[in-house]
Amino acid sequence: MQTSIHWIENVAFEAKSESGHSITMDGSAAYGGENRGPRPMELILMGLGGCASFDIVTILKKARQDVTDVVCQLQAERADTIPAVFTKIHLHFVVTGKQIKEKQVAKAIELSAEKYCSASKMLTDGGVVITHDFEIIEVDA
Q1: What are φ and ψ of residue 52, in 5° steps?
Q2: What does UniProt give as the signal peptide span (predicted)?
Q3: Which of 33, 38, 58, 96 is placed for a possible disulfide with 69 were both Cys, Cβ 3.0 to 4.6 Å?
Q4: Residue range(s) of every CATH 2.20.25 domain in the chain
Q5: CB 100 within 8 A of CB 141
């Protein structure tokens, strides 16, 4: 996997992925940023949420759960000192569907956290405490 980062100006950068996609990142106004895109640390948090959500959806579909939507809401705390690394991250999953089994959602989250999500594994190995919970929203048939 490869990517490249190109400096635009001030503290704005364009990241280009190997798969041909790009995103603009920008620093905060305190460092000269102009809010052109997410902060780099926000992208790490987004990546964790995307990785875990991918796992949850694929695991639930394999378990034949009738999922119609999955939302992952993340809250993170960072160290007060530099480097301001993440210290705690909480993922809250909102799983919507028809007759979704609570046990299946709990198992999907456990498998993602402990086995499949590379981003989660990398962060927890680095000392970040990651917690999870979920709610299920039932939709009519």
Answers
A1: -65, -40
A2: none
A3: 96
A4: 1-38
A5: no
Residue 132 tokens read as 């999870």
CA 37 to chain centre: 17
**12-17 β-sheet, strand order:** 3-9, 12-17, 22-26
Q: How confident is the model at residue 102 (pLDDT cuts 50, 70, 90)?
A: very high
Residue 140, pLDDT > 90, answer no
Question: Among residues 111, 133, 130, which one has the least CA distance to residue 57?
Answer: 111
Which pLDDT value is given to residue 141? 66
What's the CATH code, domain 40-138? 3.30.300.20
Q: Where are the alpha helices (DSSP H) in 31-90?
A: 40-62
pLDDT of residue 16 exceeding 70: yes
